[in-house]
Each structure stands twice: as C-alpha cells, then as structure tokens.
C-alpha cells in the first residue's frame, strides 16, 4: 500500500526504531509539512472578504477586509491558494498588500496594515506559513499608519520598512528593520506625512537615485516636498520642491 506520509517524514522515519517510528509519525509529518510551506514562493497576494465591521473610513469608505489571499508556488511548480482569515475584532485596513523580499532569500514576504477594534493599526509581515512579524499596535482604535515602502536604506545588508505613524495626527516617520524574522524600530522623525483623510491612495514613496534610497513625503503642513535619508543612525530631511497636490509627490519619485 502506498504511504500517505510526506517524503520528508518517510526519510526520517526509516532512521528510527520500529517502536519509536509509530509514536513519532504524526509529529514528524507535521514538521515536514511546515518546512515545505516555508519553502513555497508567494506569487501574488490580495485582500478578500470585505467587511464594514471596523468603522473608520480613513481610506474613503467603510469597507475593509477580513482575510488575506495568497497564491504560492513550489520549486517543482505545484501551486496552491491560502486564505489567512482574521478574528472578528481585526481587519486589513490598507490599499493593497505589498510583496517584498525582506530577508533576501529569493522569496517575497507580504507587508500590510492590520487594525484592531480596540488597539488601532500595526504593520504586519506574512509568509506562506502565516504571520511572521508585526510592530506594536498604535494603542487606540481609529489610529492608522500609512506605509511608504521597503529597502535597505542604509546599505548594511538588512531591509528597513518605512511608514508614517498617524499621518493625520502624529505625522511621524518610523523605520523598522527586518532581521532574523523580527522587526526592530531603528529610527523615527516627526514632521512628515503622506496621506490625507479620505484618500484612497498613499502619496510619495521611495526613490533610488543615488547610493542610498530616499523617502519622499510632504512636510507636516503640506507646503513642501521632503526627501529623507537614513545613515544607519538618524534620519535627515531636505526640501526638494513645493507641494500643491499629490501629483507633486508622484513626480518627485523620478530622479532629477
């Protein structure tokens, strides 16, 4: 009779004594299944299961999302679709999930904004096995963050994720470094923003014009465009033009 166990499990079980093999079969099979999932490559991601259970409407309407849909592919070409569903007190409060290879292993992770009914927003990182890492929640409902992008901003070999914490209130740029499967805050700077209440988009982003990427945002009162660099220790901003509308920030993403 053909075995239903994963090949990885069969290999390990052949090395065990007969008595131990029967007792450990399920545990080994579960371990191998987790290993296989971790080796899958995410090929696309999207939000699904729209819901109005989180009444904030910061992005222009009352609809957020209750689940994340991932499509993956293995090295031998096998594909599958995963639905990662949130509990009732949480939603994805975001425009779209972002794919980026945070650990530089050739397989992208998913970056998104997740909000809690009591604690507000946090940034989350997902892989094929589920949640990998997350920042702390802001701490209060209806408090949001607007992602900017991800890049190795200081050239040290590790990727930082940038976002504006409460772009309508605190207007604080925060950088979180992804290292060893965890997120650590490495820098912050007040006086910058990238979103107005009701916009269904996030303005600005990252541009790669010189040795290190630059973060493009507006200043706190929406009068100037700023380019911000990270040297590994601190954030430094300089004015690069006047702001009259979000199109100015889009134009600033192009190199001069």
Describe what is shown at a glance.
This protein has 256 residues and is mainly beta. 14% of the residues lie in helices and 44% in strands. It is built from three helices and 17 strands.
Properties at a glance:
single chain, 256 residues, mainly beta, five-stranded antiparallel beta sheet, 14% helix
Overview of this protein structure:
14% of the residues lie in helices and 44% in strands. It is mainly β. The strands form four sheets. Strands 4, 5, 6, 7 and 8 form a five-stranded antiparallel β-sheet that branches. Strands 13, 14, 15, 16 and 17 form a five-stranded antiparallel β-sheet that branches. Strands 9-10-11-12 form a four-stranded antiparallel β-sheet, with no helix packed on it. A hairpin with a 4-residue loop joins strand 16 (224-230) and strand 17. Helix 1 packs antiparallel against helix 2. The radius of gyration is 21 Å and the shape is globular.
Major beta-sheet overview = 5 strands, antiparallel
Helix content: 10-25%
Q: Would you tell me the overall average pLDDT?
A: 90
Order of helices and strands: HHEEEEEEEEEEEEEEEEEH
Strand content: 35-45%
- Please give the number of β-strands: 17
């Amino acid at each position: 009779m053909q075995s239903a166990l994963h090949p990885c499990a069969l290999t390990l079980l052949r090395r065990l004594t007969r008595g131990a093999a029967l007792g450990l079969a399920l545990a080994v099979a579960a371990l191998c299944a987790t290993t296989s999932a971790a080796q899958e490559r995410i090929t696309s991601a999207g939000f699904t299961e729209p819901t109005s259970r989180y009444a904030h409407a910061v992005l222009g309407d009352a609809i957020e999302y209750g689940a994340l849909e991932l499509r993956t592919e293995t090295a031998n070409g096998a594909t599958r679709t995963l639905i990662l569903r949130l509990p009732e007190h949480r939603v994805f409060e975001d425009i779209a999930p972002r794919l980026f290879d945070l650990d530089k292993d050739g397989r992208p992770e998913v970056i998104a904004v997740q909000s809690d009914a009591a604690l507000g927003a946090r940034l989350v990182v997902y892989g094929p096995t589920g949640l990998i890492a997350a920042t702390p929640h802001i701490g209060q409902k209806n408090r949001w963050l607007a992602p900017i992008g991800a890049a190795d901003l200081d050239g040290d070999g590790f990727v930082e994720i940038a976002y504006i914490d409460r772009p309508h209130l605190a207007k604080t740029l925060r950088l979180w470094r992804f290292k060893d499967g965890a997120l650590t805050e490495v820098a912050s700077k007040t006086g910058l923003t990238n979103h107005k209440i009701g916009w269904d988009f996030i303005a600005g982003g990252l541009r790669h014009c010189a040795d290190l990427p630059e973060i493009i945002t507006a200043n706190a009162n929406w009068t100037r465009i700023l380019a911000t660099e990270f040297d590994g220790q601190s954030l430094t901003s300089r004015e690069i033009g006047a702001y009259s509308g979000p199109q100015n920030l889009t134009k600033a993403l192009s190199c001069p």
